[in-house]
């Protein structure tokens, strides 16, 4: 999944941040701007070839690892219940078609239908409106299910919670000795009215508690998985009601009613930039403003998604790249890398290889910025066009397959897939060789020397 996402991102100018960085360098230094889908001429063949390789050889090259599902016994285990919505998109679909067999943090165990409990349900079981789906998993399972359109938490108190949808989050809290509801059932403890929180599930000594949540008697040390407001953590972190309070990252439930509007804004951005009415920067800036104005995302959430550390690395890389050009370091390195008699094809392969190695060690954006002035100097030294070298940097900096650190998606699947560092090298090395050789062969055919 990670590798396919990387390859798919190379097909458009906005598919990866590296493409935008190199395009920005081309605009500022050469006055050349790439079209939205111009990279697809090479990106689509790479996607097709890479995907075919992964389908044929990933099972053979990767050993069997325990993913998140197999590791659930080692985690705090909860049982959460969600209801299939009336007239929702999941009604009438099978469990497999609804994507409920492919959860990362939990699995479907039972279905309650018309007072009848269906256990060990097969994936071809058809879902009906009003079905109560029982899931078992880690705390993140509830967060994952909140992202699924067509199911809602079975606890009816969720809809009575006096907290706006965009201000909600999932919180784990361990009951302390001063909690007023100790020894009482959840229903008797009146958690919703006292704490403005709704209990979704309860874990005791790391194991889930079966039965209806409202009938469970609370004990000191019980871990509650709750939906509440963002200010709950700060309000109760140092109170003796709870021994420990921890919010789950990015657990605010999505507002599906805004999805058509968000897709419209995204489509307009791509369309306007694709036909050349506005630059990528202008179109993206207007689209971001449109998302805020229409309420698709809040200002606070948008601010949290800005990763200042990444921006700092990119900015520092730009400065270092400019210093390499003005100081003559880029020309010196280019002279050491290639000779005047070297074939442009071979020089292109050398630039691609160096960019790939840098990408595996540092971030992809930093690698692209550092290699750009060197590639320009190589093109000048050989007396050929700089475009094939700039495009090669785009693809090489994005094609990070050999370590989990080279690209964000590799790191995202590292934990859930139970992978090890050597796994990336086993599958990533031959894939990098295949993609690299194909890219070097195709790029000059589109952007000639």
From TrEMBL:
GO BP: any one term: potassium ion transport
Q: Which residues cross the membrane?
A: 36-57, 259-277, 306-325, 345-372, 384-407, 427-447
Where is this protein localized, as stated in its record?
Answer: Membrane
What kind of membrane protein is this, topologically?
Answer: Multi-pass membrane protein
Organism whose genome encodes this protein: Halomonas elongata
User: Gene3D superfamilies, alphabetically?
Assistant: Regulator of K+ conductance, C-terminal domain
Tell me what this protein is called.
Answer: Citrate transporter
Q: What is its main location?
A: membrane
Q: Name one GO cellular component term.
A: plasma membrane
Query: Which SUPFAM superfamilies does this one have?
Result: TrkA C-terminal domain-like
Q: Where does the RCK C-terminal domain start and stop, copy by copy?
A: 67-151, 158-242
Reply yes or no: does the keyword Transmembrane helix apply.
yes
GO MF assignments: monoatomic cation transmembrane transporter activity
The protein's UniProt keywords, in alphabetical order, are: Membrane, Repeat, Transmembrane, Transmembrane helix, Transport
Is tRNA-binding found in the keyword set? no
Source taxon at top rank? Bacteria
